[in-house]
Amino acid sequence: MMAIERFEDLKGLTLTKVDGTKGGESMIFTLENGERYSLYHAQDCCESVYIEDVVGDLNDLVGSPLTMAEEVSNSDNPPDGYDDNDSFTWTFYKLATVKGYVTVRWFGTSNGYYSESVDFEKVR
Question: What are phi and psi for residue 82, nearest 5 degrees?
Fold first, then answer.
């Protein structure tokens, strides 16, 4: 099996479990070989990064090879009640199998000096 370094490297692999929910701060993907990978953000003092929404059924991602694993981010369309002094980033993780399609939307905000990105790495 090839080394998994980026979220996109999950494409073609089969998941046996996906853990994570709206409002959470991490999502864990378990592969059929038992390896686990996490989407997360290590919070700092003046930022907030969390799963804003999950569209689709995470169970559709289990048991069939992933036909899509993409990350897209932008800083367009501020949310309602947005403070113009804050920086924000939307990060979308798009996953699909023959059973269905799921988009996990993360929202990050900060005072502009801290990261709003989501990290992806192997769980040790």
Answer: -65, 135
Overall number of domains in the chain: 1
Which range marks the domain in which residue 102 is found?
A: 7-77+85-115
Q: Decide: residue 29, CB within 10 A, 0-12 exposed, 13-18 middle, 19+ buried.
A: buried
Which pTM does this prediction carry?
Answer: 0.88
* Residue 1 falls inside a structural domain: no
Whether residue 50 has pLDDT greater than 80 = yes
- Domain-located, residue 123: no
Structure tokens belonging to residue 45? 């003092």
**pLDDT of 95 over the 90 cut:** yes
Q: 93 is written with which tokens? A: 């993780």
Which helix H or strand E contains 106, and what residues bound it?
strand 100-110
User: What would you report as the CA-atom Rg of the chain, rounded to the nearest whole angstrom?
Assistant: 15
Q: pLDDT per residue over 10-27, tens digit each?
A: 999 999 999 998 888 999
